[in-house]
Amino acid sequence: MASPDILLGAGLYETVRVSDGAALHGERHLERMTASAHALGLPAPGRAAFARAIREATGEGDVVRVRLNAPDGEPELRAERRAALAPEPLRATVLGGWYAPGYLLREHKLTSHFHGFHGRRLARAAGFDDALLVAHDGRVGEGTNANVAHLAGGVLVTPSVDGLLPGVCRAALLDAARELGLPMEARPVALAELVDADGVLLTSSPRGLSEVTEVDGHVLRRIEPDLLVALRERIAAAALAHALALP
Question: Could you give the residue range(s) of every CATH 3.20.10.10 domain in the chain?
């Protein structure tokens, strides 16, 4: 029988893309898991154990989900492979009341991730690709498993980390914008801002950088193609710069 911490989702996970014997963004994934483990009183995994778990993951595919539990007070890592997701344009619906600003546990990648799974299931049942999780007051949080950003007047805007996950690919996007000289803001974002934006993006490690083209039937403006290419190129470079070798 599974231990209570596993049954109740008292653990952490990271979803890592692998390529040519390396975990892309791997150092950042390990840093985030380590920081969350320390914050939540879990034993943090070592670099070698984290890399070994990714290398020895079961299944097939270029994306590895690494789970950390501590059933006996010691770090236990398990990993499974799955297919990668293409960074295709996405149509999204809004799930109101699904984002809770200030809820600190949501700032960690917990294995108790039913809200993301169920949110995607609801979105797909309604004919959409994903959902935007929005607070009761209209503030935008994140996607079901991705961070949100948008362009407004030449500024890249992303919601503040306030009850949402500080994504690894989000960090790479902010680095990319900085390298391109693109002004940035991290602040509360109203849903209405996305409707008027010059482009809306979702970032996640399994998928990369994707455009949101529609929200609940409202067609959104698309980001300028050359800028999208430039951002993707720099995110890919950051993935390699922060890669973790899998000996």
Answer: 90-239
3-class SS of residue 91: strand
C-alpha 113/C-alpha 106 separation (Å) is 10
Q: What is the DSSP string of 163-225?
A: SS---HHHHHHHHHHHHTT--EEES--BHHHHHT-S-EEEEETTTEEEEEEEETTEEPPPPPH
CA distance 221 to 228: 13
Distances in Å between the alpha carbon of 163 and those of 9, 141, 206? 18, 8, 21
CATH T-level assignment (fold) for domain 4-84 = D-amino Acid Aminotransferase; Chain A, domain 1 (3.30.470)
CA distance 179 to 111: 34
**Cα Dmax for the chain:** 55
The pTM of this model reads: 0.93
Please list the residue range(s) of the chain that carry CATH number 3.30.470.10. 4-84
Pick the CATH number of 90-239 from 3.30.870.10, 3.30.420.40, 3.20.10.10, 1.20.1250.20: 3.20.10.10
Q: What is the pLDDT along the chain (247 residues), one digit of tens a residue?
A: 455 555 456 799 999 999 999 999 999 999 999 999 999 999 999 999 999 999 999 999 999 999 999 887 788 999 999 998 888 999 999 999 999 999 999 999 999 888 898 999 999 999 999 999 999 999 999 999 999 999 999 999 999 999 999 999 999 999 999 999 999 999 999 999 999 999 999 999 989 999 999 999 999 999 999 999 999 999 999 999 999 999 8
